[in-house]
Amino acid sequence: AGFPPPGPAITCILSLTLKQSLMLSSPLLLFANRRDVRLVDGEGVQGESAIVVSELEDAAAVDFLFDESLIFWTDVSEEAIKQTHWNQSSNSVVVSGLNSPDGLACDWLGKKLYWTDSETNRIEVANLDGTSRKVLVWMDLDQPRAIALNPGQRYMYWTDWGEEPRIERAGMDGSSRKVIVNKNIHWPNGLTIDLVEEKLYWADAKLSFIHRANLDGSAREAVVEGTLTHPFALTLSKETLYWTDWQTRSIHACNKHSGDKTREILSGIYSPMDIQVLEPYRQPYIQTPCSNDNGGCSHLCLLSPLQPFYSCACPTGVQLKADGKTCKPGAEQVLLLARRTDLRRISLDLPDFTDIVLQVHDIRHAIAIDYDPVEGFVYWTDDEVRAIRRSYIDGSNATILVNMDINHPDGIAVDWVARNLYWTDTGTDRIEVTRLNGTSRKILISEDLEEPRAIVLDPVNG
Predict the structure, then answer these.
(1) Cα 82–87–90 angle (5° rounding)?
(2) Is the predicted pLDDT of residue 215 greater than 70, yes or no?
């Protein structure tokens, strides 16, 4: 209890906590608590936690970039990844349009965010500001949850608690994917890497244990067995493991080698989720192939376990040019999809066929959609707003073209040669045409139409 109100008080408590922890030489623990993100002293001396960010919906996963004083978290209700500086009280959205972002990891060397989504069953990566977002893994994922990075060796690790529970690893560019643990595993929730001793630790909530193994899954051994109730997330400082437990609603700790010296760090937590040791030694600096000039890549430079130890990558749906470094300007073949309350585009250039939501607001009942390849506008009908609208293919510059005397706009078709737009209206039972900019509107057919729906043009042959 006795939590400070949000605002300047937080900054004060934080700097205090930071100072005290440096003096006490005990690590700071950063954890998500659904309604907020908090810090607590790793030795549990103070017995209470400080709020970093308050008034959140559903904060689940958390990570940080120590060098830049950045804290990141996923919000499952807001379907976004957000960030704050730990000396500021404001926060901002980094990546939006997610479904269920359960796991999050910051690549402190390549300055990237990696995350799992258990609803889309994908692992994605983006720059720290959310740009150049790319799907890395999309096949054979069932319920991906925790994700941990080892950028020094250029591998990422994740847990999957689906039908066939397992821990997998792959290069941080998605290459060399391999299952490393798939026996004696049920609900692998927490996952963390001991960078110094090169060990992987994980917590299993169903089998109530914490195990560890080499980074390739070999030499597996038990650390804590049988005494855990529902371990969720796991992190580690020099010699100590820390984990959150859903049933005890506490943060617990033990010795990372022997599993003894078990103790409770903080109890009575509202809903403890992900946890990280917020210390610079968890993010040691190493020169990487991406450190200089972004590896020569136009967009994403991703670390790889294979020679030359990095690969250039492009935003989802965009192909890499033959030089292996530069991305094409955009997707060349695109499928457009109207889905009642949103519009999506799917690149057909790449095998993952990931759908990207166009960032257009106030779509209530989109029905038909078409595209003008000349100016790059997408056109669609909205039956509830009773309008024809258009925007660029990225969702920007959205405008209403026609909204007068429209009842139930249905089919739509772009004449990209003569620069006209045709549509059907099942309310007025008409087919109409206008210039692509919305001027010179004309009724083409109003007789003998009962429920005119789909419409298609062949402009080349008129």
Answers:
(1) 40
(2) yes
Which positions ≥6 away from 425 have C-beta within 8 Å? Answer: 406, 407, 408, 409, 410, 431, 432, 452
For residue 18, the model assigns a pLDDT of 55
- For residue range 327-336, what is the model confidence (pLDDT) as tens digits? 999 888 999 9
Please tell me the pTM assigned to this model: 0.86
Strand partners, 258: none
Q: Which helix (H) or strand (E) holds 18?
A: helix 8-24
Helix, strand, coil share of the chain (percent; to 5): 5, 45, 50
Positive/negative CA dihedral, 170, 184, 146, 275? negative
- The answer to whether the beta carbons of residues 80 and 96 sit under 8 Å apart is yes
Q: How far is CA 451 from CA 387, 409, 455, 458, in A?
A: 18, 11, 12, 22
> Which CATH number fits the domain 334-461, given the four candidates 3.40.50.1110, 2.30.30.180, 2.120.10.30, 3.90.1640.10?
2.120.10.30
What is the identity of the amino acid at 82? Answer: K
Any idea which fold 8-282 has? Neuraminidase (2.120.10)
- What is the maximum alpha-carbon separation in the chain? 85
